[in-house]
Design goal:
Largest sheet: 5 strands, mixed
Number of strands: 5
Radius of gyration: 14 Å
Number of domains: 1
């Protein structure tokens, strides 16, 4: 898919959106008011989602526990289960005894 891009958000916050876009589809990730919003449309590769999440983790945008909304209404491809497992490995582990 296309290169990873960071763009200013609608509110002008630098780097508020991480996006991968090409002719087949897009993945867009943003954090707004403590909520992670992921928009997936068309036929993006599963690893495009993983790459966006890695970029957001690397710059400290994501926390270990935050509400998340994933919009798949425009998604028309098959689910990449390997990418789902890769996302699982990115999630910080909780200490034993911590509530979800």
């Amino acid at each position: 898919m296309g290169e990873l891009h960071e763009q200013d958000g609608d509110d002008g916050t630098p780097g508020a959106v991480i996006r991968r876009v090409d002719a087949r589809g897009h993945v867009a990730l943003r954090v707004d008011a403590g909520i992670l919003w992921i928009d997936v449309a068309g036929e993006p590769e599963g690893m495009d989602i993983v790459d966006c999440l890695r970029a957001a983790l690397a710059d400290g945008r994501l926390t270990g526990s935050m509400p998340t909304l994933v919009d798949l209404t425009g998604f028309v491809a098959v689910i990449d289960w390997a990418a789902i497992r890769a996302v699982h490995t990115l999630a910080p582990r909780r200490s034993p005894g911590c509530s979800p």
